[in-house]
TrEMBL record:
InterPro entries: TPR-like_helical_dom_sf (IPR011990). It comes from the Bacteria. It comes from Christiangramia fulva. Residues 29-86 form a coiled coil. This is Tetratricopeptide repeat protein. Keywords: Coiled coil.
Amino acid sequence: MGLFKLLFGSNQRTPNRKNNLSKNHPKNYSELKQKTQELKAQNKKWETDSKKMISLRNRGSELEKKKQLKEAIDVYLESIKFGEEETNKLHLYNYAHDIDRVIILYSKTKQFELLEEFLKRNIEKYPEYNKIEKWQERLTKLEKKK
């Protein structure tokens, strides 16, 4: 075997490689195109869900500014319910702010029984949440008050 052949291989073309590429290309392209369309549809769904979540959060914030705290709680609870049940595209971190607002507003409105129930449910439901210690600490303080 010569040095040229060793470094650069044979100068003969491999027709099988070219045929293999042309045979697989349309299949791979159609699969890629289909997956791209699926991803676009999923992104559109996520965008729609995210916009609804943001709209609910903004409405809750506006109600808080107007001192309509019980109405704000209802809106935040609606946002949480939407995030938990009606969409599979959003994650806890998309509506964790709303959970925190409900906790704060339950305290402000002195709805301690609802707050305790809400904290217990969320601690049980989201043990992987990175700020769960805040919820546990708040629940402990609440239980000590009894």
